[in-house]
C-alpha cells in the first residue's frame, strides 16, 4: 500500500451569514463535527470559526467523498443545534462550501490560521481566499 498525505481545508457558513453560532452552540457543533468526520474515517487536525462560519482542516483517508462528508456534517449539525434551540432558532447553512487541498508543508500555516480565527477577524487579518465559501449568498 502507498503512503497518503491528503489534507483539506473546508469552510462553510450559516445562511445569510447570520451570527448563530454562540460559544455554547460552537462547542456543541465542533464536538459533533469531530465525531462525524472521524466516524467517516478522516482525521480532524483543527476546527474553529466565528459565529457565522466554520473552518475545518482534515487529513483525508484513501477514499475521498467530500460531498457526502459535507452533507452529513451540515445536515447533522443543523438538526442537532435546531433541536437544542427547541425550534426557536433554526440553524441553516448556506448552500455549498469552500474546499481546498493543502500541501503538507502548508499544514502548520493553515492550522495556525484556523486556531486563531477570532484574533484574525478582530484584527482584520483574515485571508479572503480562505474565508470565501464559494456561494453568492451574503
Protein model, in words:
The chain has one domain (7-131): 2-Layer Sandwich (Alpha-Beta Plaits). Helices cover 40% and strands 20% of the residues. The chain has 5 helices and 4 strands, in the order E-H-E-E-H-E-H-H-H. A 4-stranded antiparallel beta sheet has the order 2-3-1-4, with helices on both faces. Strand 2 and strand 3 (53-59) form a beta hairpin. The longest helix is centred in the middle third of the chain and has 19 residues, at 66-84. The N and C termini lie far apart (44 Å).
Which properties best describe this structure?
single chain; 138 residues; 40% helix; Alpha-Beta Plaits; 5 helices; globular
Shape verdict: globular
Q: What is the distance, rounded to the nearest whole angstrom, between the alpha carbons of the first and last residues?
A: 44 Å
Tally of individual helices: 5
How many domains, in number, for the residues? 1
- Using the CA coordinates, give the radius of gyration: 15 Å
Helix content: 25-40%
The CATH architecture designation is 2-Layer Sandwich
Look at the structure and give the mean pLDDT. 85
Q: What is the count of β-strands?
A: 4
Structural class: alpha+beta
β-strand percent reads 15-25%
CATH superfamily annotation: Transposase IS200-like
Largest sheet: 4 strands, antiparallel
Q: What would the CATH topology be?
A: Alpha-Beta Plaits
Output the CATH class name. Answer: Alpha Beta
What is the spatial order of strands in the main beta sheet?
2-3-1-4
Give helix and strand order, one letter per element, not per position: EHEEHEHHH
Segments where pLDDT lies below 50 for 5+ residues? none
Amino acid at each position: 500500500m502507498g503512503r497518503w498525505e491528503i489534507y483539506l481545508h473546508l469552510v462553510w457558513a450559516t445562511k445569510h451569514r447570520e451570527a448563530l453560532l454562540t460559544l455554547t452552540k460552537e462547542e456543541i457543533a465542533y464536538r459533533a463535527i469531530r465525531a462525524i468526520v472521524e466516524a467517516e474515517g478522516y482525521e480532524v487536525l483543527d476546527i474553529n470559526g466565528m459565529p457565522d462560519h466554520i473552518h475545518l482542516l482534515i487529513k483525508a483517508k484513501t477514499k475521498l467523498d467530500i460531498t457526502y462528508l459535507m452533507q452529513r456534517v451540515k445536515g447533522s449539525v443543523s438538526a442537532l443545534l435546531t433541536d437544542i434551540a427547541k425550534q426557536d432558532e433554526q440553524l441553516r447553512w448556506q448552500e455549498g462550501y469552500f474546499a481546498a487541498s493543502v500541501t503538507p508543508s502548508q499544514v502548520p500555516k493553515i492550522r495556525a490560521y484556523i486556531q486563531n480565527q477570532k484574533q484574525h477577524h478582530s484584527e482584520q487579518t483574515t485571508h479572503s481566499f480562505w474565508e470565501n465559501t464559494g456561494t453568492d449568498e451574503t
